[in-house]
What does this fold into?
Amino acid sequence: MVFLQNSLEIWLLKLVSTCLILKRLILCHKISRNNILQIKNYLVSVGVDSLAIVLITACFIGMVFTLQIGKEFVSLNTTSMLGPVLSITYLRELCPVLTAVITTARIGSAFTAEIASMKVTDQIDIFLILKIDPVNYLVLPRIYACMLILPLLNFGSFVTSIFSSLFIASILYNISPSIFIYSIFSSISYHDIFYSSLKALVFGFIISVISCSWGLSTQGGAKNVGISTTSSVVTSLLLIFIIDFLFSYLMFYQFPSLFKV
It folds into this structure.
């Protein structure tokens, strides 16, 4: 019980630290030329380096979903509905969440470990001595990079999932590719694309803010670097799932008229 109480206190302190960092970002928001160069570098590390694992994961998830769901649609003689069901599932829920989970595991953990290592070795104090705001220098470029690249990764994940589903549907269930593609375009709308991109944008903000703030609030030695990294990943994943539910509730239950075609 004492361990759980201490862990909860540390988690709450990190959450307060996150709120303070957000306040500083809002009040002292400033983009310099150096920030732009950093954003470009992080776009490569977040986007290009994560592209392969995102696409591979989306490919196999798409094949698994088609394999499982397609069998039921064939038995009900409703194969024409397979494309719309899969495309809406991928676009609205699966691809944004899956992309965010992969980014959290790969990029969020790296951000926390890197900044936490700088914090425990007193490298952050050097920025203060040089009159450089560590939040603007370390956190802001990562936030922009994640928010810019996650919608693109989400779209790539969606396209890959659709093509993998098309392959399995045509090979195993003899569904015509033209019928499959036509049913997809007739079911999704611009509202769905906007909703999916908005979720990915918000997820990118959550991942970057949590991972960076958890790193900046790390104290102690190397052991606490690992603890902060694990805690940031778990917290980011929990917030992603909670925000995903809230988005779905607000957009498709509380305000469904916003997404009528």
Residues 4 and 75 are 50 Å apart (CA to CA). Residues 1-6 have pLDDT under 50 and may be disordered. The first helix runs from residue 2 to 27. The chain has eight helices and no strands.
